[in-house]
Amino acid sequence: MAQFAMSRLFRQSTTSSVRQSILRPTQARSYGSNAAIPTFTSTSSPELDEALERFRNELFIPLALPKRQRKSVFREKYATQLQNEPITVKISETEEFTLTPKKHHDLPSKKDALEVLKMMVANQDFSNLFPYLSGLRMSNYAINSDRWEYIIRKTSDANKLSTIIACARQSQRTGLTLGNKNIARRLFFELHKTAAKADFKRRETFWALKLAREAASLMDAAEHSVRNIQEDPKHQPFVIGTLLELSAACAKIDETYTPSLCGYAQKLDAAWSRGNFKDDAATGFENIKRLEENLAVYNGMRLALGFTKASKDTGNFKARCDELKPVLISQLQKVKNADVLGDKVARELLGTKPKQEVEENA
Which superkingdom is the protein from (predicted)? Predict the structure, then answer.
């Protein structure tokens, strides 16, 4: 009886009716289903191309197949017959895939998944980030907040933070939520760094503000919201302060940004009590996180004080700036994190020069 059922399963797998149940290009094209199969573009290295293809063929496609085909791939009792009678299924109008026996413990590991992310270094590589992350999500490979912070740093180094916004916009497919305070802090600090590297001038600053606004808008959506306002990143001074900082920098170049600057100044004033700015971090790591929050807040207030209306509307900024400055200097003197110490605002507070300038003057 079991043999008869097995024969029927494999006979049906080759019929046109079963082929209709396989993923069609309308699904894959829109990523409209959790079972959509990612496709990748060429990258900067053959090794990365090979790694992405491995994940696609060994993990994403087998797990995206309809239940009937997945059984034939992963159930040991079907392995011998599948080896003797290979089945080819159509996964798009132009692509077919041959089913081969697999075991779950032989699939690429979560450690392997991280190694692929580490291989992404060039700008062109990050066009594959969203499909790759959506494939991992589809395969139930969860990415924790530490890994997301790493991914955000990597995309920032490649000037591709817009890719992170795209991942957050489709949170249900990538698992990225800006409701996590650590993830939100990392994103907004990287946006601050993007403008700081450009000396808060030029198009990079406008681009950083655009992305920060998009991120803030996304944080109103249910998948990025937190019920407790004290824990909700969008109500924290470090998010509002970064928006203030970037708006103030843009307003110095283009006065049409002044109204939004004043709006963010008022919001920061109202949210001040939710911040924790003092030098009471228990560990060096927590001190770094505190600095990543405080630098943009301080600089945002400092820049806002240069605008008469913003200064009048928020009479507390001058006193808060004066109070926060020595706290920041004390915090900076206790850390050895190159990323923080290399920040433009941090260097100004410490009175240090950029490494490149020091080398040129040596």
Answer: Eukaryota
